[in-house]
Amino acid sequence: EPTLHELAAAQGKYFGVAADNNEIADAAYAETLGSEFGWMTPGNAMKWDATEPQQGEFAFDRADEIVAFAEANGQKLRGHTLIWHNQTPTWVQELPADQMQAAVDEHISTVVGRYEDQLDHWDVANEVYDDSGALRDSFWLRTLGEDYIADAFHAARAADPDAKLYLNDYNIDGINAKSDAYYELVQRLLAEGVPIDGIGLQGHLIVGQIPDTVQENIQRFADLGLEVAITELDIRMELPADDAKLAQQAEDYGAVTEACMAVTECVGITLWAYSDKYSWIPSVFPGQGAALPWDENLQPKPAYQAIRDAL
Ligand code: XIL
């Protein structure tokens, strides 16, 4: 039986997964983690609060552990993430503009530079728009102004000339006001020579509510010369799960997979963990869950076969 990644690779794409340190320490979980997937994203270990909790005091033990696991299993890596309004220490948030810019430059050159030979993608800027399509009112925007996005891409490119540099967000999987905002932003940044290579559609979706414009949306970004990745896929439901919801979820996973497979520039799909045992959904969306293709006991759900069929 070929793995999900082998099926995707036969079509020139990858199939990946996100993981945290406690998950790679779970031997039963780690077995499938290391074998079924060809790419890995650290779920938390490369965020600013993990890598530079105090100014100038970098901590790479967690990130290194994920990188070592991936390399031991022949997996490529997506770095996640450099500039985000969450999981960034308060010491950063409270800096005045000139010092914040210096801290960003030091952070990006240190973190990206450290993993220059190991990482193939970086989510440089994460979730910079709100759902209305306005730039998110974050400490980044308030302190640095909107150039913080372009500046972060230039800093990342200076630290790693080869990594593919991504914007990444949720609720931009289909065509809507928010993905329109990205479509405009990307055209402006590319015209200004900002080194952006890709757009990450996080893919935090809801069973029965997959936008019907995912393929069209992927295609329009591809037509701008970008690559596209589905970076954090999970498809949640109201708990408890039942056969009807699991069947709909399978159909939904199949549809998203097919949308990526249909566009040459869609380079791959990453699940945000592979089993319900380690999904972030129940802690953030109360009453919802069962969002991944394997259940809490690491048994494949109907969605698993549907993904295989779509690859
Ligand atoms: C989530 C992690 O999975 C959780 O463990 C953490 O507590 C919060 O962040 N969008 C992103 C990811 O870009 O970084 C988030 O990951 C999920 C939403």
UniProtKB/TrEMBL annotation:
Residues covered by the GH10 domain: 1-310
Query: Could you name the domain of life of the organism this protein comes from?
Result: Bacteria
List of catalytic residues: 232 (nucleophile)
Q: List residues traversing the bilayer.
A: none
Give the protein family. Belongs to the glycosyl hydrolase 10 (cellulase F) family.
Q: What is this protein called?
A: endo-1,4-beta-xylanase
